């Protein structure tokens, strides 16, 4: 079940990230300052990268430990990172509310923790050839 959830969340987040990227390129260019457009693009870049990470976690979980707690923790941390990191940057760029910049590093820490768990679990469960 966990693999299904993370593949679904990964695909959904890819859909949202591609839409956000297109919206930024075509709809926000005339509305946002160049600095805020760069913040938006950073959010999109990390959103896409970590949506792909969710897809990978779903696939790895299915192949190397369906329902294993480490894969599950990594997936939820990655999803939380998307919400906190990219979400805070999307809102910051659109509203200019600067205190949201304090939320962004929490999302970054969630990304780091998720990738560390992926590396650890992969080392433990994927047999060398």
Describe this structure in words.
The chain is built from 4 helices and no strands. The relative contact order is 0.16. The protein is an all-alpha fold.
- Strand count, sense and closure of the main sheet? none
Number of helices: 4
* Cα separation of the termini: 28 Å
DSSP strand content: under 5%
SSE class: mainly alpha
The rough form would be described as: elongated
Helix and strand sequence: HHHH
Provide the residue-averaged pLDDT: 94
Uncertain runs with pLDDT below 50, 5 residues or more? none
Approximate helicity band: over 70%
Rg over alpha carbons = 16 Å
Count of extended strands: 0
Quick summary:
This protein has 129 residues and is mainly α. It is built from four helices and no strands. The protein starts with a helix and ends with a helix.
Question: Which labels suit this protein?
Answer:
129 residues, mainly alpha, 81% helix, 0% strand
């Amino acid at each position: 079940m966990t693999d299904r959830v993370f593949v679904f969340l990964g695909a959904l987040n890819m859909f949202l990230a591609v839409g956000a990227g297109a919206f930024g390129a075509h709809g926000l260019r005339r509305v946002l300052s160049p600095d805020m457009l760069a913040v938006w693009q950073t959010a999109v870049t990390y959103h896409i990268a970590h949506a792909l990470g969710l897809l990978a976690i779903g696939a790895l979980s299915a192949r190397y430990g369906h329902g294993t707690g480490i894969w599950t923790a990594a997936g939820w941390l990655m999803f939380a990172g998307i919400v906190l990191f990219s979400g805070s940057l999307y809102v910051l760029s659109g509203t200019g509310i600067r205190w949201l910049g304090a939320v962004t590093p929490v999302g970054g820490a969630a990304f780091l923790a998720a990738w560390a768990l992926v590396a650890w679990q992969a080392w433990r469960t994927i047999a060398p050839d």
